[in-house]
Amino acid sequence: MDWAEIFSGLFTIQNLIFINIGMFIGIIFGAVPGMNGNLAITVFLPFTFQINSVSALLMLTSIYFGSMFGGSITAILIKTPGTGAATATLLDGAPLAEKGQPHRALDAALVASTFGGLVSAFALLLFAPQLGALAMRFGSPEYFILALFGLSVIASVSGKSKLKGLIAAGIGVLLGTVGIDSVSGVPRFTFGNMMLYNGLKMMACMLGFFATFRMIQRVKRGAAGKTGKTAEDLKKAAEGDKFTLTDFKNCFGTMATGSTLGAVIGAIPGTGGAIASYLTYNMAKNNPKPGEEFGKGAVRGITAPESANNGATAASLIPMLTLGIPGSAVAATLMGAFQMHGLASGPKLFEEHTIAVYTILVGCVLAQLIMFLQGKYLMPLFVKITRIPFRLLTACLLVVCFSGGYAIANRSFDVKVMVIMGIVAYFLNLLDLPTVPMVLGLILGPTAEFYLRNALSIGNGNWMIFFQRPICIAFMILLVLLLVMLSRGEKKQKQRKAEVSSPS
Length: 504
Fold this sequence. Notes:
Blueprint: H1 3-10, H2 13-31, H3 37-44, H4 53-77, H5 87-98, H6 102-135, H7 140-151, H8 162-176, E1 179-180, E2 187-188, H9 202-223, H10 231-236, H11 245-266, H12 273-285, H13 300-311, H14 318-323, H15 329-340, H16 349-352, H17 354-383, H18 390-407, H19 412-430, H20 436-458, H21 470-501
Antiparallel strand pairs: 1-2
Helix pairs in contact: 1-17, 2-4, 2-17, 3-4, 3-15, 4-5, 4-6, 4-15, 4-17, 5-6, 5-13, 6-11, 6-13, 6-17, 7-12, 7-20, 7-21, 8-20, 9-18, 9-19, 11-12, 11-13, 12-13, 18-19
């Protein structure tokens, strides 16, 4: 393999321009609620047919990487994650921004995103064939145990009451069952409405749970005369509003763990950054450092999920490139893009298009560095979002959210779903039912159900199929260890609270 030809083919003016354009588009689409990287790739794919394949695919993959980081911007600044994988970032990112440290929160997200993206890109470049072969060994039993592994973190994002967290997660799982059953073909909870046969769109529900819900809250605040932080408030509370070298050292181990976990999970078809981000957040939360309070603006609470969800980005392309199996929805869209540009995904891809493929893989590493530079350059503009008056911001976000809700499938029904889910989330919030477990249940519930039924079909209804496969057993052991860690983490937190509250 001629590496000189690969690098000379990558570092051209045209390629650098298109990587930058793709990264900019991705960050914008990731940051706008209702839009995402998949939508951006779909919209801009037709415009790439007039340029060469390598430049086009570098631009499209850059859109993907940029959108993952972009989702954290609005999660931190306005409590509305632009992507599903950024919901865990909201838990500590938004509180830190509210303390008057939006720069520090955004810088932490950017550094962690770049760190995770680089690990993921190098994993794609160096270990694609090997990790792709490992992913091929996963069947329905393994996918079910992995989904349970993801659902187990509900306890760590349930707030004060684990019971209410489980109730919220159950509501999310129930919403995920709406539509035609993929195994039996029987309609469930459709009530004769043809629009519900394809189920509730994930993005419409998330827009309702986060965006519409927040808009309702802001309208209520406005009516009460509360407008939120002003620019002067931010200036007064801006002391320490900087991601320092000390922060980086404290977060390095967490970012390394999250990036590695994200890369491994991302390489498994059907999973994604959401599972990795919650798992890494949970691990960091159960091993707090002195003086660290998760849920109240802990920096590691930002770097943990961001390193993990970005660690899954490039890695999700591994099974798509090597086996022709997309590891995520975005990877499926990119697989179509590769085929349209004459690079059919599969085992022969690396043999027939060696130079072009490795140019793109090295370009994925370069894209992460460009993301960091763009993030640093545009960060002051992103921070200014917090200084927009609430009334104006609410009006603008409502327009964007309604446009995004309609853009999901070009139908008004999804806008109605978005509004209804926002109202439901508002009333559930009055009952202290957390939103994040509901989203987690909506994401992982249908996945767990589908693979459970497939696995039992393979095993003729015998549950022992899960105890006869080495990978399943390994994940079950990890699941038990995770639950033990959760239990110990709760005991430590109770002990700390007791020590703080007891008189000296």
